[in-house]
Amino acid sequence: MAKKKGVKPIAQNKKARHDFFIEESIECGIELKGTEVKSMRQGKVNLKESYAMVKDGEIFVQGMHISPYEQGNIFNTDPLRPKRLLLHKSEIRKLGGQVQRQGYALVPLDVYLKDGRMKLNLGLCVGKHLHDKRASTAERDVKREMARMVRTNNRGE
What we know:
Elements: E1 7-12, H1 14-19, E2 20-30, H2 34-41, E3 45-46, E4 51-55, E5 58-62, E6 65-66, E7 83-86, H3 89-102, E8 105-114, E9 117-127, H4 130-156
């Protein structure tokens, strides 16, 4: 069976985009067990409360919930086990330094299937304050209203 080319989105962390300013995003691989891959292909993954941390020169994602595979038996693993992310050593050192010195957070943004392999988009983020969230919401509402006005004006012509 030939592997499919292209990108297929699996899950997104919309809460992260609401709660953080995303400075930079990095694509990385995920070390998974077989039944976890099967479950993720079915879309049974939740990134809502997940975060990544650098530990002993490796990056692990914590709190990423992958539901157990229904047809799996003894091979199913703990849904909340820490999963190792696959990055080059220089990238890990760079991210670890920025998290320690500058107060950034590493937050998983989305998971997708790229050319038959599971990938995770990891964001280097800074937390938003309440007034920042309100400003983002107001800006989004203004853009939506302007788009609505443009559509109604174009219909009338």
